[in-house]
Specification:
homodimer; mainly alpha; two-stranded antiparallel sheet; 2 strands
Chain lengths: ~300, ~300
């Protein structure tokens, strides 16, 4: 399996579906949809949808089982970036090498674009087609999981804590809670919902859930490392911005060397949870390795 | 039937359920939940949940059929008020006689409190209990209706248009589109979801849907009138604030006298749609009259 080809293939599927769910509009809704589309189609890697698809495949399903949920995960991720970038929050002007949403459309429209994407994600997931394909129990379960991972017990809590602890010295425990909620919860939900919709057994759902938890944490540590060692041009934002802002990161608390050791351990743990899935989990394994590789 | 007693009774049921869904938290999530609870328990009339219950009753069901959806509607309504009040949007300091969310908790936390309430609404609706009680088809249908009414084709579109047309002269058609989306969509969805979960036939759902559409419009016109003629103290915000801000309202476009005539006509239309429901729709009838009465 060639990961690069795999990622491109799935990304194309996702992008096409996203364009169908989020069409260009004319008339009174034109500007709102333009603002939503601006960030949704700003060159994201589609990691969450791809994890969702790869997890469904590991469970014996395929991308058609998860398309609405995979797209909803990307919409929710995008809304969270738009709101995080707002002047009242992280106040970022650049994201993925482009001006952030509020810079282009103004604060009010950026808030509404985020609100719109978040709500539309639940519209997309709650379609009758997903109920028909997944059956009632899985349908209910995945919507609830995505809502829980994104909401005030999940991602929103992480962002609230992140903002409130900026510039303050915090302990490892609290930093892990922040990471787990802010980034980890939605990444984990991407894997878990893929497993459920792909038809995994409860035992396999548990294993993939563990994989998702490790991947979520690994991704955040890798992001923290990238912020220091990464190439500003590749990242589309200035390196070192976390430090400047007094963000609590793994390297800031553990130092760079130990952070890299922790990251390697977590990736190994993630890969270990996939043993029973044999070659069906090859994309998930390579995605785990890619989280380290992308630093290079 | 005594409406005052009816409203109080249903409000008590809703408030109790909301407190269960949105408990006080201690630890890292304390502030976020405090911010959400501050606005959710700020003395709202619970009109949307009550409409949902009354509609279910008209269809032959009862409040137990709709509790999660009724509470979700109130959470979504509350989130929309928090975000609308933000400095980047309407910049309101007072709401229902209390300082607005961002005045108390700051802009960042207010944005997150809104995001949290919106997402939690979908968590609450997607619970297994509702699936079990309503059955798969109704379960899917109500979540989709609420998402559609709240999102970028519904309420969010209305708010975007409202902001973009502030201080500009617009025609009646566009003003109606704004009202229909900003306030009407969620009020209508409250009635429609109640009808579906209460077990109404497709024909009865259609009638209640029409009632909801009329009620949504009537409520906005009545709000516009109240802004001019209302008692600042009762409203909890200064009278005349719409005019000052250059909002496009019914009285601004049609004049006060004609606005009152239109309002009466719409209320009559709403009540007419309820004919077939006989005494089961008495609360819905009285709520329609109350929309005019509350001005006095």
């Amino acid at each position: 399996m060639e990961l690069k080809q795999y990622l491109l293939e799935k990304r194309t599927i996702i992008d096409q579906a996203l364009h169908e769910y989020m069409p260009q509009m004319s008339g009174p809704k034109e500007e709102l949809f333009k603002a939503m589309g601006y960030s949704l189609f700003a060159g994201g890697k589609r990691l969450r949808p791809i994890l969702c698809i790869a997890s469904a495949e590991a469970a014996g399903g395929n991308h058609e089982d998860v398309i609405p949920v995979a797209c909803a995960l990307e919409m929710i991720h995008t809304y969270s970036l738009i709101h995080d970038d707002l002047p009242a929050m992280d106040d970022d002007d650049m994201r993925r090498g482009k001006a952030t949403n509020h810079i282009v459309f103004g604060d009010a429209m950026a808030i509404l674009a985020g609100d719109g994407l978040l709500t539309e994600a639940f519209k997309v997931m709650s379609c009758p087609e997903l109920l028909k394909r997944a059956g009632a129990e899985r349908f209910q379960r995945v919507i609830e999981i995505v809502a829980a991972a994104s909401g005030p017990h999940g991602m929103v809590a992480g962002q609230a804590l992140d903002i409130r602890t900026e510039g303050k010295k915090i302990d490892t425990g609290l930093m892990e809670i922040i990471h787990e909620h802010k980034t980890g919860a939605l990444l984990k939900a991407s894997v878990t919902t893929g497993a459920i919709l792909g038809g995994a057994s409860e035992k396999d759902i548990k294993s993939l859930d563990d994989y998702g938890k490790n991947i979520g944490l690994a991704f955040q540590i890798s992001d923290d490392i990238l912020d220091i060692e990464g190439d500003s041009e590749k990242m589309g934002k200035p390196a070192g911005s976390d430090i400047e802002r007094g963000k609590n990161t793994y390297p800031a608390i553990h130092g760079m060397e130990k952070s890299k050791i922790i990251l390697r351990e977590i990736i190994d743990n993630a890969i270990e949870t996939l043993e029973a899935f044999k070659e069906r989990a090859e994309p998930l394994r390579q995605i785990a390795e890619y989280i380290i590789e992308r630093r290079k």
